[in-house]
């Protein structure tokens, strides 16, 4: 079907004004008098709508006038400029074909709906202004991330989703199985017999692609992952989902400084891409969702990010300990209240906090010379706190195995990972960006359920 | 660290020849005499290698000469043109720093290894020529697909991986659960009590994002998915994996013709992108993996694809039924032997077969006026057979529910899907492309285990 998109009409209007065009879309509102009427339509390709004027010269004038919000129509007509009106042009319809009607029961009538209600109709909510904006921007952010890494010749690696290892804490993982639950096979000892399972062993859904990603960085030098990860945490908060997407770049012949430069470059690139390519949507968020959004993002895109060590940060925070619910002291993990104070009130810009105590960070992080801290970094941003976490990796076989022994991790569970330290080990580093956190940050949306098309959270797996 | 990539040296050599450069990479081979030696190194950013000449003027000459294949080094030195040699330039090393040694036990010594063996060291195989080529091309194909759709303003939708519906056949799905397998909670009737499970119900891993994708096409008009899908099929073949990635575009205000144009455009775009951006890798595949590859791909990229209806195709095939293992007759499904005969011997180019009997296709496909066939299409390509399958969707509420009743599908399991036919239904269509099939097709690799970084198949979930 040869239909022009509303995006194309807005982007290149000089090519279409004064000409006959055909468009297809959905009725957002309709009003009519005895002899003519107006339809506001949206075709999903652009945030703005298109006004259609139709008159009783059309043989189906009555049919059109009876349409409900949500109906699908195809309109042919002359595109005329309307310099005196709010919208730049409208179509004077010569023909209106009804593709599909709607009814008075259509849940998205003109009135405003709460976000809570819209979550119950996740299959229809992308037709509203808010979710048109959210999910177009989500798509653009995803593409900007790919573009950033691909332009720098990073190799995109699909790390596995189903995993036989439980290296990051089995308690929070989802089990994957094809065993007959009503009739589980048993070993002679009476345990569940996973030899009968699809993979011949216990398997779960991954919580991170990092360890697999490192193997590819040691072959391609610069790689990134972008895929789903899973947490079976019983956290019913606005920031946790059981299924979400992560970006995990990993760079070889690189240290923590390179890692921070990569993260800073990526965040600025993505912000600029979205400000450039989703102007209407970003204006909408700034106006209706989060008033300070554009100023905050412009600030991030143009600041040189700050740097502070964890130890320095603790000194800063201890001076104002009375304002915090959780008091800080060296060795404690930073809470969102501390992170936001640092980035919003002290530095007033994005801030890398580096060199955390080893005991609050993962086993694979590179030990610093003080033997107390590791070469880790968290990026804190105003309005949210931590958005990225990364580190240089321990590339020394002896140090890594010693640390694993301290933490009671078994070497045989990490054989492939240790091989990387046996054969051509080199400095390398990486970070993780929770994709949904990033979407929340760039749109100002406050609940993770509103930036995932069909969110999965505790007790909720609808659609 | 300020290291230049080997890719950059090759792409812009005029900027570097005659200058001092620093590079980091891994030793592919090394040979030395008493006073000088050669290292061939690869840094993973480019298919070609870089030759390093070093001499006994370096204080660590002996250390370098003892290096094993696989060691990681950083080299500083003068890049000099070598017009008389095979390679365009080499580095005369002024400094060689050993980042990480390797040992004689390193599994990737110079000799050739079988693909079967390399599968057992999936964490190291990306360091070989073959897998450097495969996984860089895999990355480029993924990006080309995003680029194709994003340039056309399609919205990228992340459809859910964990699903509470079993709309496409529960027998082949993986169950997802957090129940204690050794001690399953039971209902008063003695059944497993899924009310105690994480999502309060039975859940599985998705086999397709299409139904969810359709809801977004009815909001954004043009969308695509690109994400993992899962099959718990007990098929131990070279073409089946339990976890693989799929691309599923969906377009509204569009019919089967539009769908085929989109598929043809995408495939040509991706082929051209890879031929352009992975010249060295594609030459390698053509020379060492699949002799006719480049000719076949050029042919696909420049042909206008053929079109034939299923009914016409059966007439063609029936005439030569004696050459087939499976004899055809109207109503049967096409096997690979039939598909390849049509595309390779009859049409000698990619071929769309359309309008299949309704009984061999899914319930959601649009019924044709003959009431016997549906508006489905399969794209067949020389050398492989089917690579894409798609259809126009049934957008008529009455026809769709009637077909569901014939197939004993319960309306309550498809409420959100049926809503799309109640509120502003319109012609729409889409297709599915198995990403790994596409990678196999473009690289000539014959086994799906060799185009997935860490493949998951029956009884195999390593790394």
Description:
- Chains A, B: It is found in: Cytoplasm.
- Chains A, B: It comes from Anaeromicropila herbilytica.
- The structure is a homodimer.
- By secondary structure, the first copy, chain A, is an alpha+beta fold.
- Chain A has 2 domains: about 5-100, OB fold (Dihydrolipoamide Acetyltransferase, E2P) (Beta Barrel), CATH 2.40.50; about 125-170 and about 205-450, Bira Bifunctional Protein, Domain 2 (BirA Bifunctional Protein, domain 2, 2-Layer Sandwich).
- Chain A contains 13 helices and 16 strands.
- The first copy, chain A, has helices at about 5-10, 60-65, 115-120, 130-150, 210-220, 255-275, 280-290, 295-300, 310-320, 335-345, 395-405, 415-420, 435-445, and strands at about 20-30, 35-40, 50-55, 70-80, 90-100, 155, 160-165, 175, 205, 220-230, 245-250, 305-310, 350-355, 375-380, 385-390, 430-435.
- In chain A, the strands form 3 sheets. Chain A has an 8-stranded mixed β-sheet.
- At the A-B interface, strand 1, helix 4, strand 6, strand 7 and strand 8 of A face strand 1, helix 4, strand 6, strand 7 and strand 8 of B.
- Strand 8 of chain A pairs antiparallel with strand 8 of chain B, so a sheet runs across the interface.
